[in-house]
Specification:
The structure holds two protein chains of two kinds. Chain A is of the alpha+beta class. Chain A has helices at residues 6-21, 27-37, 84-89, and strands spanning 41-49, 58-64, 93-96, 115-123. Classes of the chains: A alpha+beta, B alpha+beta. Chain A binds chain B through residues 46, 48, 50-51, 58-64, 70-77, 79, 105, 108-111, 113-114, and chain B through 88-91, 102, 120-121, 123, 126, 133-137, 140-141, 143-148, 150, 152, 172-175, 214-218, 220, 223, 226-227.
Amino acid sequence: MKTQSPDAVSLWIEASREKVKRNGFAEEDLDQLAGLIEQPRQLVLYLYSKSTNMRSPLASWMLFDPTRPQEPALQNDEPPYGSVIEAMADGWRVVQFPVSKLYSYEDVDNDYLGYEFILEKLKRTR
Amino acid sequence: MSIRPTMADDDVMDFVALGYVLLEGVIDEDFNRKCLDLEKGNVDAFVVSDAFTQKVLLHPNVAGSVRSLLGRDFLVPSGGHHHVIEAPFLGQTWHSDGLSGTGYDVTELQCYYYPKAVTIEDGPTMILPGSHCRAVDREAIAHYGDIRGQVSLTVPAGTVAMTRYGIWHKAGPKTSHTRRGMIKFSYHRTASPERDWVIASDEIPAYVDRPRLPYVTEVESYRDRVRRARTWRWLCGQEPESTTRRMQPRTLAEAVAGKGQGPKLDCTTA
């Protein structure tokens, strides 16, 4: 599946024809094409905010990055962002907002830590 | 055999809020060394041996904390499990054991004994202070990652961590090839709670609330306050707390008479 607009590939073909005519076509041009048609990978970031407000500080966080080897990495006691909105400023897109009705409790019992925002970022590996 | 309690009111209040006690380096080095090559998995026979019973289970500091939190005539472990991790490992996900985590009582202490020092690279056990009364579906929180206020138990050899059964915990990520061992076992209560620890006076103090934990939301901090007071009163053998006790209000007569902690207000001037 192409992930760039057809125009980007068409422009590449057009430019490449000229390069072929001038014997200037190189391996880097194929790398460029590979990048244009590559399916970007989805990074997923769970952020647990201390309220449903995106400016609230965070209670917990977890990044799932399929582009990296799934190897152990040491724990981190500080969150990657101060709030959900700071993550958005860094290019993360919210794909799920917390649904208030799900955060129920009985007497003083509950089973959650914070309000779950799920964010994504698309990443190319080339 | 009489076990003397070692914890005072303040120590027990800390436990009520955090859900664990850490006894660092209390087990002697000679015995720690005897545990280093212990096989992994079920170690019931080793745990009930005279040596383990005397050196660990009935160690004055360990058993003294147990007596303080579970009262006299507590049940001593009759088995245990040796958790061993050797190769690098992504780490476990957060969980509590079994169907634990409900209620406000303290009837079981689950203990982790580390015969060898644990560094941050060794995949230390991680615990979440204050999570011990929070019932959880462990599979539903398997995507939780780092949590503000989490504690990685990087401890010296001979350390025993004692937790209220139900505390959220996990084996942390392990990047080293060093063998990390931990022997897990539990004590149980048989006696009714009656403030069975070191006390300076027979007068039972009101629970003195502890600081809000770093991951806790505003509303959850109020719930924590109620939960902690309930556990404290239960441990002291008192009736459950009512809302009015919690707020310590004055009667109307006391208010009219000007009794209270603050200065009497002069309402005659604007």
